[in-house]
Amino acid sequence: MTLLDRFRAQPRQKHPDPTIRLAFVQEIPITERDLLAEIARDDGDARVRRAAVAKLMDPAALAAIASTDADDSVRAQANAMLRDIALEAFEGVAEAESLAAADALADPKSLAVVAKSATREAVAARAGARITDPHVLGSIARHAEHESVRRAAFDALQDDREVLSVALNSEFREPALTAVDRIADRAELEQIATRARNKSAAKRARTIVRERPSHSAPVTATHAIEMAVPRAARARRRVDRRGRTLILRTTIPSA
Asked: What is the tally of structural domains in the chain?
């Protein structure tokens, strides 16, 4: 066999020209998972690997590429594919594949998107359970589509600022009311009463403020009493000085 014959017989995925390999990847059906996974893992050109990753529907293979590929853009593409599989952005994605993609995701932002937006409640819950960042948990508690996911995220919150944010900014009744019930600071409750996006949360905060006695009134009264004592003493001293002056004026003869 001549050199030209060997060149012609070479598989297109092994062609030395990356543009030929890239064109070949674009022709591969997405059902050819093993071939796409091999190219995505082994090709020497990042453009070719990225194109293969963009058609790969295997969560396990995508997870390996997302964690080990040397090129940032290839890893980002693998994470994007895992996110989209978890969200069932493609036709024919089974629940098992969505769950596997949620389990394989490592990017916190992608996990948050899945927790808030996944169609399947089980997938959203699986993604939410892997999040520990307080700010992200607060965002999920405010915005997740599924009530159970919002509740789980809120129950995991230990950050007072995020609890206040849920009370102020959540449009959903259940997490906003639960957040109000966890807040003890009167100033924060008054803020919720006037600014909360959820009307039920604002009403609950107004009720609590109205029924809860103010701790500032006794302090103010005590302070007033304490301030009154030195004022009375100063007044007595002024009266005493005036009296002594008057006595002196009446007893000392004029020259």
From this structure: 2
